[in-house]
Design brief:
The complex is a heterodimer. Chain A has helices at 17-26, 30-42, 46-70, 76-118, 125-141, 144-158, 166-169, 185-194, 196-199, 205-208, 218-243, 246-251, 255-260, 272-301, 306-323, 327-369. By secondary structure, chain A is an all-alpha fold. Chain A has a single domain, classed as Amino acid/polyamine transporter I (Up-down Bundle). Chain A is globular and about 70 Å long. Chain B is an alpha+beta fold. Chain B contains 18 helices and twelve strands. Chain B has helices spanning 2-31, 37-47, 74-86, 93-99, 111-118, 166-176, 208-219, 229-236, 253-261, 290-293, 296-325, 333-343, 350-370, 373-393, 399-412, 418-426, 428-456, 510-517; strands spanning 54-58, 63-68, 105-108, 122-127, 133-137, 182-189, 195-202, 248-250, 265-269, 275-278, 458-459, 462-463. In chain B, the strands form three sheets. A five-stranded antiparallel β-sheet of chain B has the order 1-2-4-5-3, with helices on both faces. In chain B, strands 6-7-9-10-8 form a five-stranded antiparallel β-sheet, sandwiched between helices. In chain B, strands 11-12 form a two-stranded antiparallel ribbon. In chain B, β11 and β12 form a beta hairpin. Chain B is elongated and about 100 Å long. Classes of the chains: A mainly alpha, B alpha+beta. Chain B: This is Spore germination protein A1. Chain B: Residues 1-30, 488-518 are annotated as: Disordered.
Chain lengths: 370, 518
């Protein structure tokens, strides 16, 4: 392929780091309050929706890798240009860049909202946005090695939050899970669709694929990463359904944080203060990977260096974060973004794969005739 | 336009070429040695600006010794050189050389090298009528006796530290590693000071790529003088803007040798008691040489203690400030009562209180270094007890903060490397400020910043955060924990060693295996 990416040995990364990349790209702000949204659709079978959504990510990732394997070392942007030609391909690229920017923005804005609600009601939005963007810029300018390093440390250093879920187990009521499959199928499937905003992030694979050193191991580690995410989401969902009563869950916006707030250690109470601040480390890989994905696409369209790009990008996100002011607006952004993301992540890759296969068949057929 | 440029450049070139030629001629007349005694003496005198310690001694009318008085060993000069030459009557440099009982004497026909050598304790022996002279190197052996390392003391292990003499230091290293593969490359650094810098590595273990990189960095230095290895370290490390040192400075020969055997490179500077070790990852700064000497359980415990001490030292005071300024709710009620009781008399906000106390501790430390050792202890007691107690009684600070600050200071001194210990202490101040203004959010901001900063650093081109990132699980055996020796038979891959195995991993428990055979 003429536009494939050639890399030196030093700028590639090991396949097993994909586990960390995929996992940390998925887990972010969504986990704070996905329970309520799914519960509205699927009631106490919400965990089945989460499980199905997890399975869906496996299928989509499978198709994504199939598509990427057709082009031995190329990313989604290059594949677009190859499959659809220069103009239409670049149009799709722009959409994908905008999608990444929107994802970046929605993660940032949601986190700022959580910090303002739970810890610092009086701190301005612009300040929180500026500090977060500053850290993202510092990471981004370090290159892919540093970004992957951040996702690695993000997982390693926050793994201790998971056992904290044991505390609410004391107050759980397992019977609230029964009867299983009471909700009808349409409700559960609607729940799967609502899961989109929380479970996306693994699409970064589309962009990072050419940077992997041992490509034959990609499949294994991507699926392991997805499995870990699904496991965490399902377990959080199960704990939430059994801990909260149904009515309460529909009224709790950030159910996971409410779960944290009952944790009591000898020297710490109101654990959610620490958890919310600590979440900065968890959303950092999200932000960095999205800005990096957007950058990889942008350099296919215009000639821009990394520093210049990240400044322009951060400035526009900064302004956008000031425009979106209150909870209703943020909810609106989340809903719209969730719907768009559903089509970009769960529908489009299948379409792309079919088109790429057809095109390849057509091409080889043509060559045979010639 | 193109023509014009060409003309300009060619016009510029010509005078430069002429200048070079004339320079060459000058050098030729300068560098040859005059067979005439008086001319030779004069030219040497001019070269050292007729320094008053330049001594000229004639043994025969034809045989002249020139040397700098303070640099040569008078005893050797009298007993060997003058004694040997007095009985000698034949008059040629070759003959003089054969008569001398000095091992490192040689012939030379070049004056520049001779004068540089004279600055290093060489006697120039001139024979009338010959344009070659004999150089006999007999420098004074003025050096401190070997003593215990002051800054890196340890209970178990060798008790010898480097001193200021390069030859002694290299002989110390050679005494530990009796191997012809131990290479010693000498490089002169400093246009005026002409300091000898020795680069040490073990051929066949150290990576060639790193050797070339380090050699390149040292030879690229353009500086007029180099007085200590800590200056060289700042000149050759990867990012001199960072607060974190990227190469280790150690005064322990055993530490240097064990790192050389791990595939690292060492640099010793003449006149400095510290050797540079590179590459060195962040984690390795917290490992002591003693950890290998102790049994693995105890060493692991010591390491865990040290790492938790570092975390405690950095984050304890900021957490106190953040919790008391913004997040009262986080503190359990029983603890909150004690805390607010002890703070009830304090008129200052926690941020100011903490900064004040941290500053006092830093003052005590700095004063302790500058004061002569006899007074130092007294000041420690005065500072610790009098100021501490008085500050609480006067109602300036709370008891609990004193405990926290003292604990943090104590913990910061557990870091085996002095350079890294400094960083751990200083890094606390920005974090306290962040905590005082933005609470836990500020601390988290600082924490993320530090992690990203560490991720961005390299040490001689290899990642600073190894072995954690990039994750090299095999190297974790000797990281925060220390596994027993039968498990740590591989060299750390961070040094990219040419030979990975330290030794053949034997059976973990040989006795048991023998019993099985029976």
């Amino acid at each position: 392929m003429k536009n494939s990416i050639q890399l030196s040995q030093k700028s590639t990364i090991n396949a097993f780091l994909l586990f960390f990349i995929i996992h940390t790209a998925q887990i972010g702000v969504g986990i704070h309050g996905f329970q309520r949204i799914i519960y509205q659709d699927a009631k106490h079978d919400a965990w089945i929706s989460v499980l199905l959504a997890g399975i869906a990510t496996h299928i989509i990732a499978f198709i994504m890798i199939k598509t990427l394997e057709m082009y031995s070392s190329n990313d989604l942007y290059g594949i677009h240009q190859d499959v659809f030609g220069k103009w239409i391909g670049n149009f799709f690229n722009i959409i994908y860049i905008l999608y990444c920017s929107a994802a970046f923005f929605s993660v940032l804005r949601n986190y700022i909202e959580v910090v303002q609600t739970w810890v610092f009601p009086n701190v301005n939005t612009w300040f929180l946005a500026a500090t977060l963007l500053l850290i993202v810029m510092y990471t981004f300018t370090g290159g892919l090695r540093v970004i992957v390093g951040v996702s690695f440390f993000s997982l390693i250093l926050s793994i201790w939050l998971l056992p904290m879920l044991v505390y609410p187990l004391k107050f759980m009521e397992p019977r609230s899970l029964l009867p299983i499959l009471e909700a009808d199928m349409s409700g559960i499937l609607k729940g799967v669709q609502s899961m989109t905003f929380t479970i996306i992030g693994f699409e970064v694979l589309n962009v990072i694929y050419p940077f992997i050193k041992d490509k034959n191991n990609v499949r294994k580690y991507v699926h392991l990463g997805l499995l870990a995410t699904t496991f965490i989401y399902v377990s959080v969902m199960l704990v939430s359904i059994t801990y909260f009563s149904g009515d309460l869950l529909t009224k709790t916006i950030w159910a996971t944080l409410s779960l944290f707030s009952i944790i009591k250690l000898p020297f710490v109470e109101r654990f959610e203060y620490i958890a919310v601040c600590f979440w900065m480390l968890i959303i950092l890989p999200n932000l960095c990977l999205y800005v990096w994905a957007a950058y990889r696409g942008t350099i296919r369209l215009v000639n821009v260096n990394a520093t210049k790009f990240v400044w322009i990008f951060s400035l526009s996100i900064f302004i956008a974060s000031l425009v979106v002011k209150n909870r209703t607006q943020i909810n609106m952004v989340n809903n719209y973004f969730g719907q768009v993301a559903f089509y970009v992540i769960f529908v489009y890759p299948i379409f792309l794969y079919v088109v790429a296969v057809v095109k390849r068949k057509f091409k080889s057929h043509k060559e045979q005739i010639e | 336009m193109f023509n014009k440029k060409f003309k300009l450049s060619s016009a510029k070139k010509q005078p430069a070429a002429e200048g070079e030629k004339s320079k060459e001629n000058e050098e030729k007349t300068k560098s040859t040695i005059s067979p005439l005694k008086s001319v030779f003496i004069k030219s040497v005198g001019n070269a050292v600006h007729n320094s008053s310690d330049l001594k000229v001694k004639s043994i025969h009318p034809n045989l002249t010794l020139i040397y700098i008085d303070n640099l040569v060993d008078g005893e050797v000069l009298k007993k060997h050189i003058i004694h040997d030459l007095l009985g000698n009557t034949s008059e040629s440099p070759e003959n003089v050389l054969s008569v001398l009982s000095i091992p490192n004497a040689k012939l030379s026909g070049e004056i520049d090298g001779a004068i540089t050598g004279m600055m290093d304790g060489t006697v120039l022996i001139h024979v009338e009528g010959y344009s070659q002279i004999v150089l006999a190197n007999i420098p004074t052996k003025e050096s401190r006796a070997l003593s215990t390392p002051e800054n890196e003391s340890q209970v178990i292990g060798s008790q010898v530290g480097f001193n200021e003499s390069l030859t002694t230091n290299i002989s110390l290293v050679r005494r530990y590693i009796k191997n012809p593969d131990l290479c010693n490359e000498e490089i002169k650094v400093g246009e005026r000071s002409n300091t000898a810098v020795s680069m040490l590595y073990i051929k066949g273990i150290a990576s060639e790529e790193m050797i070339n990189m380090l050699r390149q960095r040292i030879t690229d230095i353009k500086i007029d003088s180099l007085l200590d290895s800590s200056i060289l370290e700042q000149l050759i490390d990867d990012n001199s803007l960072s607060i974190f040192p990227q190469m280790l400075l150690t005064e322990r020969p055993d530490k240097l040798c064990s790192e050389l055997l791990n595939g690292k490179l060492g640099v010793i500077v003449d006149g400095s008691t510290m050797a540079i070790v590179a590459p060195h990852s962040f984690l390795e700064f917290f490992q002591s040489q003693e950890d290998i000497n102790l049994r693995w359980q105890i060493a692991t415990f010591a390491r865990l203690l040290r790492f938790s001490a570092v975390v405690l030292s950095i984050f304890l005071t900021p957490l106190y400030v953040a919790a008391l300024t913004f997040h009262y709710e986080v503190i359990p009620q029983t603890l909150l009562v004690t805390l607010s009781e002890s703070r009830s008399l304090v008129p200052f906000p926690p941020l100011f209180e903490a900064l004040l106390l941290e500053l006092i501790i830093e003052l005590l430390r700095e004063a302790g270094i500058r004061l002569p050792s006899k007074v130092g202890q007294t000041i420690g007691i005065v500072g610790g007890i009098v100021i501490g107690t008085a500050a609480v009684q006067a109602g300036i600070t709370s008891n609990i903060l004193i405990i926290i600050v003292a604990l943090g200071a104590l913990a910061s001194f557990t870091t085996p490397s002095y350079m890294m210990g400094n960083v751990i202490r200083i890094i606390r101040f920005p974090l306290i400020l962040l905590a005082g203004y933005w609470g836990f959010y500020g601390i988290m901001f600082g924490f993320c910043f530090i992690i990203i900063h560490l991720l961005r650093q390299t040490s001689l081109g290899s990642p600073y955060t190894a072995p954690f990132y990039p994750p090299r699980v095999k190297d974790w055996r000797d990281s925060i924990i220390r596994m027993p020796l039968p498990f740590t038979f591989k060299r750390p891959s961070n040094t990219r060693p040419e030979d990975e195995d330290k030794y053949e991993p034997g059976p973990v428990n040989p006795e048991k295996n023998e019993q099985k055979v029976e």
